[in-house]
Design a protein that fits this description.
The chain contains two helices and 39 strands. It is elongated, with a radius of gyration of 25 Å. A hairpin with a 2-residue loop joins β22 (250-251) and β23. The chain is mainly β. The chain starts with a helix and ends in an 8-residue tail after the last strand. The chain folds into two domains: 28-211, no CATH class; 254-407. 7% of the residues lie in helices and 46% in strands.
Length: 407
Amino acid sequence: MRQFQARWFAVIVLSWMLIGCAGISTHPSTNNNQPGDNGAPPSTNPQGATFIAANFPGADCGAKILAADKAATQNGVIEVTPACGTTWSTPVVVGQTHTLLLENGTYQIAHTVLLHDGACVQGQSATLAITKPIDIISNADASNSNLCVKTITLSAAQLTGGLSRGIYFKNVHNFTIDSVDLESMVTHGVFIDDGSDNGEITNNTCNNVIQGSCFLAGNAPGLAEVTNMNISNNTISNVHAANGVFVIGSKNGQPTSHITINNNVLRCVRDTSIEIGDGAQFVTASGNQITPCVTGSTGIIVRSAQHITVENNTSSPAATAANMLGIFVWNKGGDSEPFDDVTVNQNTITGYAGTSSAGISWSSFAPNSSNLSITNNVATGNTNNFFARTNNIINLVFTGNSSPTFQ
């Protein structure tokens, strides 16, 4: 009798254990962390146990994800497949150290996916799509650390108006945005706002932004400052009304600063492919390949920024058009500061042959813009290879360029 009772008790305990583990997968843990190019620590933790969202209760996939996230342990992975449901009406929030892993489908969301510290959204042949104007992914708290978004498509292709951003991070410290495909954002692809630092934005594609920039770091002077960021090896195309990469701003005397913009490919950005704007300091733009495509567009602008290096970039328009510029360094009346310590070196600028177009041009409305070095550049086949719109710049150095003089 006692043996029968012992066996019955063991069966009950085993049954409870199986029920409790119904939503847990034993997929092997992996660690895909890579240190940031700027020395920032990786923004994800080694992966722990996997929790399959479809196996948890909930009225829709969003609710199932929340239930799985609540059950997940440290570094847990919330695995989502179409079996969970491809339309999420419940808002999704990813808990600390958890990874939301989306697989093999397109998931329609009605609310922004929010990330707590150490959280990550990662895809495997997956798309997060919105049908109303919202940010797709953002941080959950007033300040967050160690966030990541990887290998996923973010799409606003079904929107006909309103505002949307693929990723919006404000006051986020240490983050990675890698191998993300940003499609048809109405406002910005990625907007990194006030107080954020130590970020890697690498290996992404951004196509068909309607109103804003593919990658925006900072905001208008006096409103934002962003520091220590690497924007590299991205492909940008078909930006309709703003910039490919745009860094700008300062707040309480702290500038948007220490930004690298390297080895990006920018095609048919209809305003400015790369703009280093008013208030930015210590920015390098190097090795970028730029192909403007319409009248009035510019390859690289340095506007009222300080301690800037523009070097080893190539820029040539897809077709001849009027009022196009390869590189333009300038100060506009009303900007917060003049430009200072700007080096334009070893760039190759060709084919800006339309009316009033130029390869490399400079101008300052303020009489105290200073220390502009234009050296060792190759500018050929342009209406004006080198063009000075004003000459009131303190300490202009012009030497080693393909044309010995400028207009």
